[in-house]
Amino acid sequence: MNAPVPGVDMRGSPGSCRVLFGVFTRMALQGFGGVLPVAQRELVERHRWLTNEEFLELLALGQVLPGPNVVNLALMVGQRFFGVRGALAAMAGILCVPLVGVLVLAALAAQGQRLPAVAGALRGMGVVSAGLIVATALRLSMSLKRNPLSPAGAGLVVAAALLMVGVLRWPLVMVVLGLGAAAFGVSWLRLRAAGAVATDTASPGKPDTAPPPTPLRDPSEDRHG
After folding, report:
1. How far apart are CA 216 and CA 198, in angstroms?
2. CA distances, 199 to each of 16, 150, 190, 194, 195 (Å)
3. What are the residues whose beta carbons fall under 8 Å from the beta carbon of 29, sequence distance 6 or more?
4. I need a surface site. Which of 18, 87, 198, 202 has the fewest CB within 10 A?
5. What is the C-alpha separation between 164 and 136, in angstroms, rounded?
6. More confident call, 210 vs 121
7. Three-class SS string for 148-188?
């Protein structure tokens, strides 16, 4: 029996490690041109295991960590629900079964890549892959409205990342560490300020409304009354 991790809300969650394995296997088999668009659709829109914000947070962490970001995402999603067993099940699903297909397709492509039809098909798949990534980015951008950086600040960070990586060809590690640290710092300061304001609003200074003390009565008044 796969017991869920305590403290995790199990609404809209996988029922077992077997379900995790099956879903991530299906994601990998559908991921022609990239698993990321399929992962967003499966985890957020279809199964509702994650919100858009949670998906973005895990994806950002997976991109910073060493290794393929989708494999890192699978590990974190599996661990979120079933601990180490869930992480292993999700990683096995994203890697094991598709590995056979990748090896077969790689062997066929190596033999037929000189054919004009095969070369054209591969170029066409590259265009489709780019389109899927752009479509996923547009869907995820809707969740930036609630980002601590504000939509304008998040747009500036995106534009700066595109400039540094796409135009200036800066190393990806430098961009992630430098730009990511700056965005993290600004977000932390804004969240801290918002928390302080919320605390002050929830606990305003209350005037002293205690009733005045009741004066003591003289017992002699009751006897002469």
Report:
1. 44
2. 40, 21, 14, 9, 6
3. 97, 98, 101
4. 202
5. 21
6. 121
7. CCHHHHHHHHHHHHHHHHHHCCCCHHHHHHHHHHHHHHHHH
Evaluate whether 25 touches 98 at the Cβ level (below 8 Å). yes
Question: Tokens for 72?
Answer: 């890192």
Say whether 7 sits in a helix, a strand or coil. Answer: coil
Q: How far apart, in whole angstroms, are the C-alpha atoms of residue 82 and residue 4? A: 5
**Per the structure block, which two tokens stand in for 200?**
């002050």
Is the overall model pTM greater than 0.85, yes or no?
Answer: no
Q: What amino acid is encoded at 30 in this protein?
A: Q
Average pLDDT of the chain, as a whole number: 80
Cβ(149)–Cβ(189) below 8 Å: no
Residue 20: count other Cβ atoms within 10 Å of its Cβ: 28
- Contacts by residues 145-153 (CB-CB < 8 Å, ≥ 24 positions apart): 146/53, 147/187, 148/186, 148/187, 148/190, 148/191, 148/194, 149/183, 149/186, 149/187, 149/190, 153/186
Cβ–Cβ under 8 Å, residues 76 and 54 = no
Task: Find the mean pLDDT for residues 110-120.
Answer: 72
Six-digit token string for 8: 């995790």
Distance (Å, whole) CA 132 – CA 130: 5
Average pLDDT over residues 157-177: 89
pLDDT beyond 80 at 117: no
Mean pLDDT of the region 155-176:
89
Query: Token pair of 58, please?
Result: 């895990």
